[in-house]
Design brief:
Layout lengths: L37 H16 L2 H11 L7 H16 L13 H18 L4 H16 L3 H21 L4 H15 L3 H11 L7 H14 L3 H13 L3 H12 L8 H15 L1
Helix pairs in contact: 1-2, 2-3, 3-4, 3-5, 4-5, 5-6, 6-7, 6-8, 7-9, 7-10, 9-10, 10-11, 10-12, 11-12
Length: about 270
């Protein structure tokens, strides 16, 4: 699993696929889990082997069976949440075919386990980051009322993650994507939100740009650069957008989907350059 969670490529929150591409071609060393206790390391290493040899469902079953074996259960609950979200992302929607299981139910399970992880450890920034992504996933398969109801939860929990750890570049990225997507919300969705809740979520491309820049300061990787370029493009600053897409071409391949973002940025350079 990449340091930059594969879920990252989540978003757009309101009409999205969690992963822009499959989680293959990973440019990274095997995970050693140094930050965890020996007990948790054993569980996660075993879970890695199970997932590699079998499936998300088998790994999730193993994690649930062993969740309370260590002093800390929160990291295991968070991983269960992540696996449900990743699994849901491999279930294609109406136009993508391949629906063996219910995508929405998998995302709901991911969100539920994200909540459990937070309840088990309210001071871990990763739990709030994961919960933010869980809401984003459920929103992506919800109707307009559900989107309006849950949209602000993505922002709230990403902000909580940053409050607990200002070095969390993924949470800054999520906030950037939140402002980017909210700024593109249709007038109808905004109106529905006002009718139901008395207000609508307020996003801005300017704030999206600021959050993506903060993420880049912490980790200059392709996904941050790509979405910074997209925010500039949507805000009407084509020159700055093309500069970001050009810089992206020079970055090394170190994360899931880096080549995908390079290819997409190159298409935009060719289109707008």
């Amino acid at each position: 699993m990449s340091r930059f969670s594969p879920l990252l490529i989540i978003l757009p929150f309101f009409s999205f696929s969690l992963l822009a591409q499959d989680s293959t071609d990973v440019y990274e060393e095997p995970i050693l889990y140094h930050e965890y206790s020996e007990c948790l390391r054993e569980i996660f290493n075993a879970a890695d082997s199970i997932k590699a040899e079998s499936s998300e469902a088998t790994e999730i079953h193993y994690l649930k069976e062993n969740r309370l074996n260590c002093e800390q259960s929160s990291p295991v609950s968070r991983r269960i949440s992540l696996r449900y979200l990743e699994w849901g992302d491999t279930v294609y929607d109406d136009k993508g075919v391949k629906e063996d299981v219910d995508k929405k139910e998998l995302f709901k399970e991911g969100l539920m386990w994200g909540r459990i992880a937070v309840e088990e450890d309210t001071l871990n920034h990763l739990n709030y980051e994961n919960l933010s992504m869980g809401f984003a996933a459920v929103i992506s398969v919800s109707g307009l009322k559900g989107k309006a109801n849950m949209a602000d939860s993505v922002r709230i929990f990403a902000e909580k993650a940053i409050m607990l750890d200002p070095r969390n570049d993924r949470a800054y990225h999520i906030l950037g994507r939140w402002h980017y997507e909210v700024s593109k919300l249709s007038w109808f969705t905004r109106m529905l939100s006002r009718v139901i809740f008395g207000e609508s979520p307020k996003g801005s491309f300017e704030r999206a740009i600021n959050y993506f820049e903060q993420a880049i300061k912490l980790d200059n990787i392709a996904v941050h650069r790509y979405w910074l370029g997209m925010a500039y493009l949507e805000s009407g600053n084509k020159e700055e957008a093309l500069e970001q897409f050009t810089i992206l071409q020079t970055l090394p391949l170190v994360q899931h989907n880096d080549q995908y973002f390079k290819d997409e940025a190159k298409k935009l350079i060719d289109k707008h350059g």
